[in-house]
Amino acid sequence: MWAAGKIIRFDETRGYGFIAPSKGGEDIFVHANDFGELRHLVHPGMRVEYEVEAGDRGLKVASLRVVDPVGVLRPERVPDAAPTRTGQTGDDDGMCDVLSPREFTYEVTELLIGRVPTLTAAQVSSIRQALVDHARSHGWVES
Predict the structure, then answer these.
(1) Which of 39, 53, 89, 141 has the smallest number of Cβ neighbours within 10 A?
(2) Are the C-beta atoms of residues 15 and 32 closer than 8 Å to each other?
(3) pLDDT tens per residue, range 82-139
(4) Rounded distance between C-alpha atoms, residue 58 and residue 76, angstroms
(5) Exposed/middle/buried for 13, CB within 10 Å: 0-12, 13-18, 19+?
(6) With a threshold of 0.70, does the pTM exceed it?
(7) d(Cα 102, Cα 1) in Å, to the nearest integer?
């Protein structure tokens, strides 16, 4: 049976943390590998659904899914494919393309994760929003 909860603690160095069940009760142990490809984005407050099993030291996750994986990455980021640039043509007229906020956010996210993979999802989100706001104020992204 699937239950819902939120990550309350997560130690990236040790690779584990705990889920607080939405309906109350004992915290559930969760390992970084339970998140699959999203393991680098785990942060306190992340909403998850999980199945639980008894472990040697108490309850632990048997299987897990992030409630809103797109929300974890922000709605502007589509994880399956890179966005295409709007208004891009084959010839270079000396002007740069103005990106949509979605395109800009995707590019920034890829750069941040590639250069500093230890950033938390909350840190990436905060940096991205500041950069989008800055880019919008300069006309670098569409309004």
Answers:
(1) 89
(2) yes
(3) 444 444 444 445 455 677 777 788 788 877 877 777 878 888 888 888 888 888 887 7
(4) 38
(5) exposed
(6) no
(7) 36
Residue with tokens 């494919």: 81
Task: Specify the long-range contacts of residues 1-4, CB closer than 8 Å, at least 24 apart.
Answer: 1/51, 2/49, 2/50, 2/51, 3/49, 3/50, 3/51, 3/52, 4/47, 4/48, 4/49, 4/67
Question: Which run of H or E residues covers position 134?
Answer: helix 121-137
CA dist., res. 21 & res. 106, Å (int): 32
Q: Which residues, in sequence order, are CB contacts of 23 under 8 Å at separation 6+?
A: 3, 4
Other beta carbons less than 10 A from residue 74's beta carbon: 17
Q: Residue 45 in contact with residue 20, Cβ under 8 Å?
A: no
Q: Which residue has the tokens 């905060």?
A: 126
Beta strands in the chain (DSSP E): 3-11, 16-21, 28-31, 47-55, 58-66
